[in-house]
Design a protein that fits this description.
This protein is of the alpha/beta class. It has two domains: about 375 residues, Alpha-Beta Barrel (TIM Barrel), CATH 3.20.20; about 100 residues, Immunoglobulin-like, CATH 2.60.40. The chain is built from ten helices and 22 strands. The strands form five sheets. It has an eight-stranded parallel sheet with strand order 4-13-12-11-10-9-8-5. Helix 1 packs across helix 9 and helix 5 packs parallel to helix 6. The longest helix has 21 residues. It is elongated, with a radius of gyration of 23 Å. The chain starts with a helix and ends with a strand.
Length: about 500
Amino acid sequence: MNENFIRLNNRLIIAFAYCFLLLSGCTKYFAPISLHPENPHYFLFRGKPTVLIGSTEHYGAVMNLGFDYVKYLDALALSGLNVTRTFTGIYLEPQGAFGISNNTLAPGKERLICPWARSNQPGYPGGGNKFNLSEWDEAYFTRLKDFISEAGKRNIIVELDLFSNFYDTMQWKLSPLYCTNNINNIGNILDQKEILSLRHPEILKIGDDMVRKIITELNSFDNLYYEICNEPYFGDLMALKAWEKHMTGVVVEAEKGLPNKHLISNNIGNGSLKIQDPVADVSIFNFHYCKPPLAVEMNFALNKAIGDNETGFDGIDNISYRTEAWDFLVAGGALFNNLDYSFTTDNEDGSYIVAPGQPGGGGTSLRGQLFTLATIFREIDFVNMKPSNSIIEENFDGPATLRVLAKEGSQYLLYLNNIKSSRADGFLTEYSKKFAISLPQGDYKAEWINPLTGFRDSFLIAGHHGGTLILKTPSFREDIALKIIGNK
């Protein structure tokens, strides 16, 4: 299909989505986003069943004073996406880290703002004065609340990560908690793996107090949930797990006397892992780089929301992240959030062209493709659907995969991921696949969906006698989806 047509089609879809969001602004009071009472694998937000789909800047929107988050949130709304992820400012990165261009987690000189006020003593290595861990920076909390408020106006949910693992001393030595960066004689710890543990009471108290302050300040927001820590699985795993359980308890205790209760997320691991001892107060279990989406299948019996809230390290091509998103949500996931490197400190509108060498992808075209996925989920009754790969009677040969989400007899969403075949032949060959599924007797409306372009091709399944139905896809290269709706 002509690339100009694809770009025009995506622009029209996105523009329509943005107009719709602006016209449907919410002023009515709602409780914070929650697990859906009828199906806790999904969310309830402002009275509507919800899946979360995003393409997020590198988590520095609030802590980096050089980042215009209103432009950023406008770009997300324009793309019809509804979740973003941001860090508090305890963790940050040096400029140039991981090869990221204009990294939002690497504030420029004197551009870091965090929960603690600056002192009158110079010497912070990122520019400006050291921090006073005994005094809050009210300007930070004003900025944080404004960010969440602006997101809420656009029906965007904020995942606020309270902490992040420190991967190396280079990040630890930029933290306000590091001993030479504050005036409180706190943080004289050489091994960064010791920070997120119960071994250092002075650091633990600082973290506890910060969490309580944030919980109190943000209690009124409905478009918010808390992730305790980003990637708490590098280092001493037993110590990290005990610390994370402690901090989860701090959040729960801090909200006990407050009007609103917010969802809590634990970040479980990279890839897939079966959760053995879930913390009772945790409602969202997030994974990173979850492809294939085995984490959903392994943990579906928990009856909680399973998310894939960070992507990357698979090149810069859209296909890697589009197929990851479709696979994850059709497998029964509740949340997909792409890490989008087209949002930078110089391009808050997501217009930076992601070049080879970046640790992931992103951009307007990918966000348009994710909007197609979001649109499909707005059209189906996903709360009453579940993973139903058992209806597949005969699959096709080769490395392609087929997944089904269904309310059997009523609604079906099938997704065929052919990325392995396409990569093997250089994306040159068009395929047509044949497979068999089992459907009850009846008439059905169906449409093939091109996840790349959003193009749809409708057809009828009339007078099906029940049982085996053989289907043949239109020609495609990378992936294709099929929506089937029964006629009542």
